[in-house]
Amino acid sequence: MSDKEFIERVRARPGMYGLNGSYYPTITFLDGYDLGRSGALLRGFTEWLVARKGEETSLGWRALAIEEAFPGAEITHWSQLEPEQEHRAVDVLFCLLLDFLHERDGSQQR
Predict the structure, then answer these.
(1) How far is CA 1 from the centre of its chain?
(2) Mean per-residue pLDDT for 61-88?
(3) d(Cα 57, Cα 99) in Å, to the nearest integer?
(4) How far is CA 50 from the centre of its chain?
(5) How far apart are CA 50 and CA 71, in angstroms?
(6) Which of 2-16, 20-34, 62-76 has the lowest average pLDDT?
(7) Taking every pair of C-alpha atoms in the chain, what is the biggest distance, in angstroms?
(8) Cβ atoms within 10 Å, residue 54
(9) Helix (H, G, I), strand (E, B) or coil at 109
């Protein structure tokens, strides 16, 4: 199973992976999965998000995904999210990650 297929499964059925739709457990899960893959899942994800943003930043992928979910808002950390914002942040994170994996894996197949 590819990384993209795995992430699609997690997104479709988060409860099967112990997730409840909240941002912190989701990023923790992704960090753990990435560690188990020796960094192969998220390698380049931060850089891809920075290039997509079009400006330099020292933020990591966790904060950059939040910025993408709430443009113009001054939310840069998961602890600042209201409960109803959690689900939007998770949805945007999965969209970004799937877009990244599509581009990354597509470029490897050429």
Answers:
(1) 19
(2) 89
(3) 20
(4) 13
(5) 14
(6) 62-76
(7) 42
(8) 6
(9) coil
Number of domains in the chain: 1
Rounded to the nearest 10 degrees, what angle do helices 83-108 and 45-53 cross at? 100
The residue with tokens 């909240």 is 22
Q: How does pLDDT run across 86-110, given as a tens digit for each residue?
A: 999 999 999 999 999 999 998 655 4
DSSP state of 79: G
- Measured CA to CA, the distance from residue 98 to residue 104 in angstroms comes to 10
Average pLDDT, the chain: 92
| C-alpha dihedral sign at 65, 34, 43, 99 | negative
Cβ atoms of 81 and 75 closer than 8 Å: yes
Phi-psi region of 54 (alpha: psi -120 to 50; beta: other; left: phi over 0): left
